[in-house]
Amino acid sequence: MSTERYNAREAEPRWQKIWDERGIYRTRNDDPRPKYYVLEMFPYPSGRIHIGHGRNYVMGDVVARFKRMKGFNVLHPMGWDAFGLPAENAAIERKTHPGKWTYENIATMREQLKLLGLSLDWSREIATCDVSYYGEQQRIFLDFLKGGFAYRRESEVNWDPVDNTVLANEQVIDGRGWRSGALVERRKLAQWFFRISDASEELLAGLDTLERWPDKVRLMQRNWIGRSEGLHVRFVLADAPAGVAENLPAAIKVYTTRPDTLFGAAFLALSPGHPLTEKLAAANPALASFVEECRRGGTSTAEIETQEKMGFDTGLKVRHPLGGPDLPVYVANFVLMDYGTGAIFGCPAHDQRDHDFARKYALPITPVVLPPDVDPASFSVAEAPYEGEGTLFNSGFLDGLTVPAAKEKVALRLENEILGNAPVGERAVNYRLRDWGISRQRYWGCPIPIIHCDSCGPVPVPEDQLPVQLPEDVTFDQPGNPLDRHPSWKHVNCPQCGAPARRETDTMDTFVDSSWYFARFAAEPGTAPLQKGAADHWLPVDQYIGGIEHAILHLLYSRFFIRTLKKLGRVSVAEPFAGLFTQGMIVHETYKDAEGRWLFPEEVERDGEGRPVKVGTGEPVTIGAPEKMSKSKKNVVPPEIVADTYGVDCARWFMLADTPPERDSEWTSAGIEGAWRFVQRLWRLVGDTVALAPEEVTRPADFGAESIALRRASHRLAAQVAEDIERLRFNVAVARVHAFANVFAESLTGARTGAAAGPVAPDLAFALREAATFLTAVVAPMVPHLAEECRLVLAGSGLMAEAGWPQVEDELLVDDTVTLPIQINGKRRGEIVVPKAASPAEVEKAVLALDLIAQALDGRAPKRIIVVPQRIVNVVA
Ligand code: ANZ
Ligand code: ZN
User: 369 CB contacts (<8 Å, ≥6 apart)?
Assistant: First the structure.
């Protein structure tokens, strides 16, 4: 028996070096094997990684290694989502350059990822801030522009009036600028957009083809796109009171999904940005200042929706389209300009916002939908609106109809009513999805390749002047965009007329950078970043793995991007990710010292009585509940510490073992120690095998019962773990390995006992070596370093990293035993496992030998035993 411990600290770097030197994980596009592309969402280079970041990379790595063993040409690349605000903040705080900070972080994190033993093709590494990458992105932008998928329009931004700068949504905290603390205002600015809303329907339909995506994510995307079917209704203006404004339109068009509630309408409301509002405000200073007030506060939808409802009565009235009383027209802060028509009718009895509004402005609340089985006399909506299904009442020709039937009837009636030369009602489909504003007033991003000329307008940067590179010499000592105040960068001549002109100083949203990086990985290193042949070969990504926080925007933008590239003829695929998996997080306890300061786990130990204390000082420490690992709470574990103490294979094993991969998993020292013990056990099982059966054994013609039993277990292990990994059920795979280890250990003990009398029989030696080989192969994707070491002991040469998955013999998978229930005098008393081929006489003999029979019969012989083959055994006492 081998007593030597497995020394991960020595073995792991040694194997990593060998893999590296042999270039084992380099992928070639011309490899003839079938392709498999596995990708984890690439990281933002924020500084250092902790073990909590590692889980999705390890999961992806298991899949990559497994698919290689299964004979696929696997692409498993890594890169960096490297542009973004944190680098600028770091530049401000540390007086460094964002690029320097970013590339330094990348260097650190690359080494940390390498430590995890990931089978990545590092030759394809990219950072989105590499000029070669963002230069191609500028070409894509210009293609989008030419194809009509990009355009410029005025749109609102968050404006910090003290710092005189545009703020990103995440820089607005409780309505105030993050640095100045000033109340944020909304300002209009000309910005660039991608026309994603035109793709709403196809993005929705495409979801149905993504069968290997979690339902949850598909639902989130569906809701985000937010398709709704409703009616446009024109409300005719009554005669305006004197002095309101001149040249008013004849009617106001609203969008409603509840035309059935028209008889409950109490008011009309216009968005503060509605053209009619603007017209009215021009003649009404009080309204103008109300609109001004609405502009305060951030631009995010969440912010607009949570604000208190505010309205301004314009004095205008409209006619009710179905003959009800005239309705007042308000301007209201909760009506969005860029949804529907920017105008609504309000029905306070059946909508929460309208209810809030009606209570505030003392408008009538008339119910028109009666819930099922409710007496109209006792039904009240004074306190809360009723938003459910029911039967129409108080509604003239609609009375007695269900909500859907009433919707249909109103639609039919209004569609056929012509006013001027258009119908009063028109069916309409709306989507919540807005066009994607990509302009950011920041330095650290991909410059938008446009030149603004006073006479020619916005002009694309000509092909031969691309890429537009970011200038290096910038300062961050004052607020605002450094590109804007750079002395020379933006001053260029117009490519069309040659007159002095200005570069666009906005850069692109970093979501653009992450919308096509997976296509960049497809191209061989050193070649053009976006190549049709390469992208078509590798895309879609077969398995994409990442956090649920990216369920909506990143995935939706990437889907739009690839669809658009397809329309432009640059790729042939429509959907970028065929399979998606969202992994759970790693959580860890938090620690605080007596003063309430966070402590790192390595600063905490247990004293003699098991109480947590601070290392060195012995001060008491309070332990908090497990939370997502985060730098700010210090509940992080650096990979280096794990590698040095236990080896990264232990960390990998633990991350896969503990919980289903989609759920959060708690990192504990007990857990990682358990993983360590199991790694040692695997090593011993292999060592023990070699001690008993040191030589390669040729396959004997016949196998004894013990050998067959072990072989069955080995082959079942290989078959089942393969399926588990295919389905990403890593924890189940680990559980199977544990169970197998027990079976294997028993066989080894049996063989050792037998071996006292002489050498192990060749059939058993073969089965033992096969078991060890299978076990090594099956754990190889999860603990790749240990597997190499085991293989070396078993086979003497070759690399596990280049080995195939074990050949499973199907006949060893069929179960050849059957479990029969045993009844004594008609009552079920137990069961027995017998070979399927056993004769009734053999079954009877086996049953009689059972303790439970002897006990039940008190030593007497049974009157009769009836064996129904494959079904049941009946004993008559
Ligand atoms: C009258 C009504 C009565 C409504 C009722 C709802 C309930 P979805 O399903 O998301 O499409 N709406 C329309 N345009 C709006 C805008 N620009 N800003 C804010 N709200 C707007 O929502 C459609 C409903 O949201 C519409 O149906 C409209 O209010 C409102 F008992 O019309 B409803
Ligand atoms: Zn010009």
Answer: 260, 261, 264, 349, 350, 386, 388, 389, 390, 391, 392, 393, 403
